[in-house]
Write a structure and sequence with these properties.
By secondary structure, this protein is mainly beta. The strands form 2 sheets. Strands 1, 2, 3, 4, 5, 6, 7, 8, 9, 10, 11, 12, 13 and 14 form a 14-stranded mixed β-sheet that branches. A two-stranded antiparallel ribbon has the order 15-16. A hairpin with a 4-residue loop joins strand 15 and strand 16.
Length: 191
């Protein structure tokens, strides 16, 4: 069983099977890594592109480090992860940076639709953020002509709250007003 390092320098490498736990992958400038398999080792995207699935699909990794000059490309064509939208499933540490490219397909989005684009199965929080997209940032103000925006969270998910999730719709904000020194939460509406 091959356990060495794999470097994708140019072209596209699709992993649709599985690799040994010790196998590390590096995706450089002109390289693209995708597929629907399992890379048991860690993946470092160092200038290249990570594009899980086969438009769409899911790819499982042992760990993920995306560097500043890298790209994470996600196709979203519906609500089901792995079959209607791309999803990374990561069992180790997750560190993101670089550009996030989200390609919304031609489907009708609704307020509250959620897309877990990185499912972090580890117990550590996601570190970093994509270029220009801090926690809660809007990445698209009118998804598919719906009049609804899409925003990102690096603390999404239901169990560990450490997944990367894109949500359709306006975020609500709660402001704590004080009258007599006691905070009183007031929900103002959408921001």
């Amino acid at each position: 069983t091959y356990t060495g390092q794999t470097v994708v320098q140019e072209g596209t490498l699709l992993v649709n099977g599985s690799t040994a736990a010790a196998s590390q992958f590096i995706v450089e400038d002109e390289g693209i890594l995708g597929g629907t398999g399992r890379i048991s080792g860690s993946v470092t995207v160092a200038g290249g592109t990570l594009s899980p699935g086969l438009s769409p699909g899911s790819l499982t990794l042992g760990g993920l480090t995306m560097q500043l000059d890298s790209t994470f490309e996600v196709d979203i064509n519906g609500l089901t992860p792995g079959t209607q939208y791309d999803q990374l499933i990561v069992s180790g540490n997750v560190s993101v940076a670089g550009e996030l490219q989200v390609n919304f397909g031609n489907f009708t989005v609704q307020h509250g639709n959620r897309f877990m684009i990185i499912r972090n199965d580890g117990d550590q929080p996601v570190t970093g953020s994509f270029d220009g997209l801090p926690e809660g940032a809007y990445l698209n103000m009118d998804v598919n002509g719906s009049g609804l925006p899409a925003w990102i969270s690096y603390r999404g998910g239901e169990i560990e709250s450490n997944d990367v999730v894109i949500t359709i719709g306006w975020r609500t904000v709660e402001i704590h007003l004080t009258d007599d020194g006691v905070p009183n939460p007031v929900r103002l509406g959408y921001v």
